[in-house]
Design a protein that fits this description.
Layout: H1 10-19, E1 27-34, E2 39-45, E3 48-49, E4 59-60, E5 68-76, H2 78-92, E6 103-109, E7 113-118
Antiparallel strand pairs: 1-2, 2-5, 3-4, 6-7
Length: 137
């Protein structure tokens, strides 16, 4: 199974900026679509590491109900996410969809794992398209 490093989760970055430094040890617990469906209410929660079983060492939120970060919710709009993506491309010169790999997520299945395809935004170059503030395809 091939693993390709992906770009930052821009929605999460915006939420963490809004919530502040206290969110550094917390993980996204829940995404809720709000409004017209393009905006999200992001909730951060405390995780624990599984200590046994086939998923030993992975994180989970199970058994931690109610252990949300106090004031750990933020509304993230589509415009804010797009702005963070444009800023990333401007600062790094890398495509915000594929993270400079030239490959983007295509699908996932239990049998075959994650499949990737040539990034449509940068046509596989990994570099931010010229005029990268234009809408993504």
């Amino acid at each position: 199974m091939t693993t390709i490093q992906q770009p930052p989760n821009f929605m999460e970055l915006v939420a963490r900026q809004k919530i502040g430094d206290k969110a550094s040890a917390w993980e996204i617990f829940k995404w809720e679509r709000i409004g017209d469906g393009n905006d999200f209410l992001i909730s951060l929660g405390e995780t624990r590491t599984k200590t046994s079983g086939v998923n030993k060492g992975q994180i989970t939120w199970r058994g931690l109900d109610g252990r949300m970060l106090p004031n750990g919710k933020a509304v993230v709009t589509e415009a804010e996410t797009q702005s963070a993506e444009a800023q990333h491309e401007s600062e790094t010169g890398n495509c915000s969809v594929c993270g400079n790999t030239g490959q983007s997520f295509a699908s996932w299945s239990v049998a075959e794992g994650t499949k990737y395809r040539t990034c449509r935004r940068c046509n596989g170059t990994g570099k931010a398209p010229s005029g990268s503030t234009e809408a993504k395809a």
